[in-house]
Target: N-acetyltransferase domain-containing protein
Amino acid sequence: MTVVLKWDGECTFSFADGVNALPEKTCGSFETRLVHLLLFSTLYMFTDILLLFHHSPPEHPSLDPRQISFELMLMAQQDDAVLGPLVGLKRLRQLPSSTNPSILQRLKTLERKSFAADEVFDFDDRVAKQRNLEILVAFHGHPTSSSIAAYAVYVTSNRRLLLHKICVSPSFRRKRIGTALMERLIGDAKHRSCRAIDLWVDEANDAARSLYSRHGFLLRDSVQDYYSPGRNE
Model:
């Protein structure tokens, strides 16, 4: 079964959103929301202090999940979020146009390694220039010479965001880079005043469904044999 998921922007709260991010119809009075905000800010400040005083830093401190989660809250809506010195998130249209052919070719390579032939997205220059389409790329190093750690492709229309595809390179999985992409994508949806985010996912893809569930997506519908006979959405 293919699962259709929906994220309702009005019911999501993050530390960066501030007091008014919690709707009164679900979260109570202004005073209640203020208390929630203070509790969240105290929690993240305390977490940051613990990280500073931790006597044995992780093997890859720039990719420590707790640190990344904290930084994402603060940087989700910035144009150039950087997850430590190793991985940076960039929208393709932010980069010099002269770098597009090389980046698109690397995206094609990762796409073909990750998806079946009939599910491959056509990363060509014409598609990349569509006004309502965004390609968000996580680079390992400098964009012009680095490998691509992950990417997401999404379209915005009529105050809705459609997540067409998200992919993390096998060598960069389990480092919360997928979380980084989702946080940025949700931040972009809020910045564009989108009412909701829609996506489709193979019901057998447990990792992807877990990622979406953690970010507040809910099951809306299912489609039998969407990808192929026996592969439902």
